[in-house]
Design goal:
Oligomer: heterodimer
Helix content of chain B: 10-25%
CATH superfamily of one domain in chain A: P-loop containing nucleotide triphosphate hydrolases
CATH class of one domain in chain A: Alpha Beta
Order of helices and strands of chain A: EEEHEEHEEHHHEHEHEHEEHH
Number of helices of chain B: 13
Radius of gyration of chain B: 22 Å
Number of helices of chain A: 10
Shape of chain A: globular
CATH architecture of one domain in chain A: 3-Layer(aba) Sandwich
Distance between the termini of chain A: 31 Å
Shape of chain B: globular
Mean pLDDT of chain B: 83
Helix content of chain A: 40-55%
Mean pLDDT of chain A: 91
Low-confidence stretches of chain A: none
Largest interface: A-B, 40 and 33 residues
Number of strands of chain B: 24
Strand content of chain B: 25-35%
Strand order of the largest sheet of chain B: 4-3-7-9-12-14-17-20-22-24
CATH topology of one domain in chain A: Rossmann fold
Chain lengths: ~250, ~500
């Protein structure tokens, strides 16, 4: 599904290398988690894959189903099936959540040459999917993320994901700022989307989220590289001992 | 006019798919830039007393009207063009303009729209303003669940210096509503016109209003009798077509005790590389317990990307809440014109009267806008509200200029002003110039102002969900303008949304 090969990335303004040769291969239907200390480049990886400005790719490639992502505009990547659930979802005052969702869904459908969803069909689907995430009509009407609580913002990201039905989902610290109940709700939302044709890259600091969203592989990222890969037990090890042991072991 | 979505609430929520499609279909060009080829009757170029007499004679006006015009002209010759606005433009040569241009075929004053030259009717059809008395405006079929009966809009079509005709006159007459061109009103209802014209914007008010008083050729007249709710929306559609011609329309609306009317105004002009002058006056008289809503979508040709051509728009609009509890609401969407100089104002004379001003002003490329309002609180417990959204892009300069004045007798009055500016790119400017005068100690004035840039994070968020950059900008800007768009009647809200997106095309990337 996603093949990242020797990816090197610098910050455009500072000439500072953030990613220093990331290799990662994600098969269709699998769930990969990335953990790592602050500043190791996890969020940068998520942003670079989805096409955020301000980064320069100096080397390497990232292919989604064999197609180079790094040459595409952000909206093209989205239409190709990539989705990033933001760590800090952005507020858009005055734009209703529902309008935003419908504009996004139809923009992608159009880009893929599919017919747009009618207002009625869209409403039906969004109500059904919102229900599972406990997002009611009141939250649909409010402007995008404006005045949303931390939990509401993250649930809203998952709703967008459910509506857009991407193939490759990247979750950037979706668990940050969530209480136990909200984490459960969000995880259930994600698990409901698990599918043989859909892959996940889950970036997190805590094992806790991985109790709910069970990964097939866990990667440890440090200093711009993936330094260790293992199964779910690797996350438990980090939880108990921190990163120090792994860092020394690799060094 | 654009296609309507099926659910009304969708219109109110920001940009819609339909809007975006319409925008794309228009491919970034000024949509109304074409010209109607038609034989015109021009008065000689330049301005003098004879021209004033000629315009008056063309309109078959009574002596008092001619005298009024001549008095204004005498005044105007003594006045100087104001230069306090934050606008830069070459000096206007008032002798190099045609002050009267009328299609030849209009000389015999057609009895009804059926007799009007088909070419002229086709012009309005092309603009999406059909002059047949059909239920709804073209392009808004599918207005959906709203019963067609409630969606009738009467149109007065003004082409250069003359009104071509007014629809639904007979039906309006049944309700006692008079809706006709001002030239017709001067002939058929002289007592009303004489009583009210110049009573809100006096002949000597300002340079451009005085010029208008001397040479105005047409415009609309509305009278709503006491206790009458106007049975449909009224609208005037102004089209400047002839080259080097000024348009000086004058609109007079009188809303008698306890009456209500909602009035819409639209304007377009062909693309030309010379500038054209538009100096209009709108006067509104509102009696006790009456209410007027006046909405404008101003889409005059804005000039090209290099600032060549475009309309110079110098407009005086004022409403006088003459009776107690009178209400007025101005809503304007200003997307066109090379230069905009416009301050729709409210005189809150009656006790407990209310004035509202909602504005979206977009300036892109080399456009300059200096616009705002004046709220003059004279009566007790008067209230006013100002919501201004200025959007600047390209090299444009956009100024909000507003006055809130609380007079000594305006005890316990209140004003709330919110002034938001949005910048797109780093070569444009936004300016806010509020004037506040409070001459009593029981009134309250609040002013809030913000300036922000279209946020890269917002654009990236939208794009990461699949919208392209222009769609993303349109969505964010429509969100920014939402409060004002909501105050527009539905037909105009759609057109305005589409216009917001079109006006900003090419402003990113």
């Amino acid at each position: 599904m996603l093949e990242i090969n020797n990816l090197h990335v610098e910050l455009e303004e500072e000439d500072k290398a953030i990613l220093k040769g990331v290799n990662l291969s994600i098969k269709a239907g699998s769930v990969h988690a990335i953990m790592g200390p602050n500043g190791s480049g996890k969020s940068t990886l998520a942003y670079v894959l989805s096409g955020k400005g301000g980064y320069e790719v100096t080397e390497g490639s990232a292919k989604l189903e064999g197609v180079e992502l790094l040459d595409m505009e952000p909206e093209e990547r989205a239409a190709a099936g990539l989705f990033l659930a933001f760590q800090y979802p952005v507020e858009i005052p005055g734009v209703g959540n529902m309008t935003f969702l419908r504009t996004a869904v139809n923009a992608q459908r159009k880009a893929r040459g599919e017919e747009e969803l009618s207002a009625g069909d869209f409403l039906k689907v969004v109500r059904e999917k919102g229900k599972a995430l406990q997002i009611g009509s009141e939250m649909m009407k409010r402007p995008v993320n404006v005045g949303f609580s931390g939990g509401e913002k993250k649930r809203n990201e998952i709703l967008q994901m459910a509506m857009l039905e991407p193939k490759m989902c990247i979750l950037d610290e979706t668990d940050s700022g969530l209480d136990v109940d909200a984490m459960k709700l969000v995880s259930e939302g994600v698990n409901a989307l698990r599918d043989a044709g859909r892959s996940f890259l889950v970036i997190t600091h805590y094992q806790r989220l991985l109790d709910h969203i069970k990964p097939d592989f866990v990667h440890i990222m440090a200093n711009g590289r993936i330094i260790k890969t293992g199964g779910p037990e690797l996350a438990l090890e980090v939880e108990q001992n921190g990163y120090a042991d792994i860092l020394t072991e690799v060094a | 006019m654009t296609a309507m979505p099926k659910v009304e609430t969708e219109v109110r929520e920001g940009v819609d798919r339909e809007t975006v499609e319409t925008v794309e279909a228009m491919a970034g060009k000024y949509k109304h830039g074409w010209e109607t080829e038609i034989e015109m009757d021009f008065a000689p170029k330049g301005l003098n007393e004879d021209i004033v007499r000629l315009i008056s004679a063309k309109n078959e006006e009574p002596q008092w009207m001619l005298d009024w015009r001549l008095a204004a002209f005498a005044r105007w010759k003594e006045m100087e063009e104001p230069d306090w606005a934050m606008l830069e433009y070459p000096k206007i040569d008032y002798q190099d303009i045609y002050y009267y241009a009328s299609p030849k075929s209009m000389q015999d004053k057609p009895k009804s729209l059926d007799d009007v030259d088909p070419k002229l009717l086709a012009t309005y059809k092309k603009l999406g303003i059909p002059l047949q008395e059909q239920m709804i405006l073209a392009g808004v079929e599918g207005a959906g669940e709203v019963p067609a009966e409630g969606r009738k809009v009467a149109v007065d079509a003004v082409f250069d210096s003359v009104s071509l005709g007014t629809t639904f006159q007979a039906e309006l007459m049944k309700a006692g509503v008079i809706f006709c061109s001002i030239s017709e009103a001067i002939r058929t209802h002289p007592e009303l016109v004489q009583k009210y014209i110049g009573s809100v914007v006096p002949q000597s008010d300002n340079f451009f209003a005085t010029l208008n008083s001397a040479v105005f050729s047409d415009g609309s007249f509305v009278y709503i009798p006491p206790g009458t709710r106007c049975p449909m929306e009224l609208s005037t559609y102004f089209r400047i077509n002839a080259e080097n011609t000024g348009q000086f329309e004058r609109t007079l609306i009188v809303c008698d005790k306890g009456a209500y009317v909602s009035y819409l105004e639209g304007c377009t002009a062909p693309k030309r590389d010379t500038n054209q002058l538009h100096a209009a006056v709108v006067e509104i008289v509102i009696m006790e317990d009456a209410e007027v809503k006046y909405s404008t979508v101003q889409n005059w040709y804005p000039g090209d990307e290099d600032g060549v051509g475009g309309i110079y728009n110098f407009v005086t609009k004022r409403a006088d809440c003459r009776g107690d509890r009178a209400k007025v609401m101005w809503t304007q969407v200003e997307t066109g014109s090379a230069i905009t100089w416009k301050y729709p104002s409210c005189i809150l004379r009656g006790d407990d009267s209310q004035g509202e001003f909602y504005s979206i002003a977009i300036a892109n490329n080399a456009q300059q806008a200096d616009t705002g309002t004046k709220m003059i609180h004279l009566g007790k417990r008067t209230k006013s509200r100002i919501v201004s959204k200025g959007i600047s892009a390209g090299r444009a300069q956009n100024t909000y200029r507003g006055l809130v004045s609380m007079h000594p007798k305006a005890k316990d009055s209140r004003n709330y002003t919110q002034c938001d500016s949005l910048l797109i790119g780093d070569k444009c400017g936004a300016h806010t110039v509020p004037y506040i005068e409070v001459k009593n100690n029981s009134s309250r004035v609040e002013h809030e102002a913000t300036t922000s840039k279209v946020d890269d994070d917002q654009l990236f968020y939208c794009r990461s969900r699949g919208m392209d950059e222009e769609e993303a900008v349109a969505l964010v800007v429509n969100g920014f303008c939402k409060e004002v768009l909501q105050s527009l009647p539905m037909e105009f809200a759609m057109e305005a949304q589409a216009l917001v997106a079109i006006s900003l095309e090419g402003s990113v990337g």
